[in-house]
């Protein structure tokens, strides 16, 4: 009796794909699963003097408990001219405001949820 081995293509076909859109005016991060809105979260974004960069980027690194003001998780973006990312916060009162140095801040429980779903390489569109 021979064994059948599924190819990686088979698994990729059935694996969910995620993408993220961040609307800086609305202070929202929308997570899409297979191109359908999966969940929307309230976020903090950059203040006028240090705005969140606009464009289409990718998550290039991830860290658990990065320390400092970054809360429970960090997801770094390949945005130019700075070290920008989506991260938690040790200042939950800042969520929903234009207050960061350009990063996207989330409540720690929310950033953990997103972190556990999206892989490195996930597309992040900031509008």
TrEMBL record:
Keyword Transferase: yes
Known pathway: Cell wall biogenesis; peptidoglycan biosynthesis
A GO CC term assigned to this protein in UniProt: extracellular region
Top-level taxon: Bacteria
InterPro entries for the chain: LD-transpeptidase (IPR050979), LD_TPept_cat_dom (IPR005490), Transpep_catalytic_dom (IPR038063)
Active site per database record: 87 (proton donor/acceptor), 103 (nucleophile)
Molecular functions per Gene Ontology: glycosyltransferase activity; peptidoglycan L,D-transpeptidase activity
Keyword Protease among UniProt keywords: no
GO term, biological process aspect, one: cell wall organization
A Pfam family annotated for this UniProt entry: YkuD
PANTHER family per UniProt: L,D-TRANSPEPTIDASE (PTHR30582), L,D-TRANSPEPTIDASE ERFK_SRFK-RELATED (PTHR30582:SF24)
Family statement drawn from the similarity comment of this UniProt entry: Belongs to the YkuD family.
Descriptive protein name: L,D-TPase catalytic domain-containing protein
Species per Swiss-Prot/TrEMBL record: Clostridium manihotivorum
């Amino acid at each position: 009796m021979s064994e059948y081995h599924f190819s990686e293509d088979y698994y990729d076909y059935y694996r969910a794909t995620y993408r993220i859109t961040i609307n800086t005016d609305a202070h929202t991060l929308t997570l899409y699963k297979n191109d359908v809105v999966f969940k929307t979260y309230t976020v903090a974004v950059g203040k006028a003097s240090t705005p969140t960069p606009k464009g289409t980027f990718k998550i290039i690194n991830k860290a658990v408990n990065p320390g400092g003001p970054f809360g429970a998780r960090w997801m770094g973006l390949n945005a130019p001219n700075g070290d920008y990312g989506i991260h938690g916060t040790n200042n939950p009162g800042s969520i929903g405001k234009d207050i960061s140095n350009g990063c996207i801040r989330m409540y720690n429980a929310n950033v953990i949820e997103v972190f556990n779903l999206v892989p490195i390489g996930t597309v992040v569109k900031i509008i």
